[in-house]
Design the sequence.
C-alpha cells in the first residue's frame, strides 16, 4: 500500500536532521580537541614542576661514578697495551738475525 508523501514536512525535517548530524560529527572533533588541550596543560605542568625529595632520600649522582668507571677502563686498556707492546718487543729481540757478508 502506498501512502502519499507530504513534501512540506519532509523538507522541514531535512534541515533538522542535517543539523543533528553536523552537531554529532563536530561533537567528536571538539571532544578530541578538548582532550588534547587538557593533556597539553598536564604535560606543561609536569615539565615545570620540581619533584621534592624527602629528608630520608639520598641523591645518587651517577655522573661521578661514570667518570670513575671510564678512567678505570682507560687505565686497564693502557696496561693491556703496554703488556702487549712488551711481549712484541721480546719477540722482536728474539727473532732478529744478524747476517753479514
Sequence:
Amino acid at each position: 500500500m502506498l501512502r502519499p508523501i507530504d513534501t512540506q514536512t519532509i523538507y522541514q525535517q531535512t534541515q533538522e536532521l542535517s543539523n543533528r548530524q553536523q552537531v554529532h560529527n563536530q561533537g567528536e572533533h571538539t571532544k578530541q580537541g578538548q582532550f588534547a588541550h587538557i593533556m597539553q596543560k598536564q604535560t606543561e605542568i609536569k615539565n615545570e614542576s620540581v619533584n621534592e625529595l624527602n629528608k630520608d632520600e639520598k641523591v645518587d649522582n651517577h655522573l661521578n661514578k661514570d667518570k670513575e668507571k671510564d678512567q678505570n677502563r682507560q687505565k686497564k686498556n693502557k696496561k693491556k697495551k703496554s703488556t702487549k707492546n712488551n711481549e712484541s718487543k721480546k719477540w722482536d729481540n728474539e727473532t732478529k738475525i744478524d747476517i753479514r757478508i
